[in-house]
Design a protein that fits this description.
mainly alpha, 3 helices, 57% helix, 0% strand
């Protein structure tokens, strides 16, 4: 562990308002959680190749093409 980085982060946190301190805490928690996630090798997924019917793939492709790059400003 690099104590100089920890010291610098601590010094910066001390002068931040509580809402920003909370954001930093949540960010570090998310970073820590992201290192725990592990996927599976692609070779284990090969058994699923070709299992989606062609008609379903076409429908998905059309939906992606139709909805890509469109922003719904009322969505949020």
């Amino acid at each position: 562990m690099n104590s100089s980085i920890i010291d610098e982060v601590y010094e910066r946190l001390k002068v931040m308002p509580p809402n920003l301190q909370q954001q930093v805490l949540e960010f570090t928690q998310n970073l820590a959680d992201s290192t725990k996630k592990q996927g599976v090798p692609g070779s284990q997924l090969l058994r699923f190749a070709g299992t989606i019917p062609l008609d379903d793939l076409k429908v998905m492709s059309e939906a992606v093409n139709q909805d890509c790059e469109q922003v719904d400003i009322n969505e949020w």
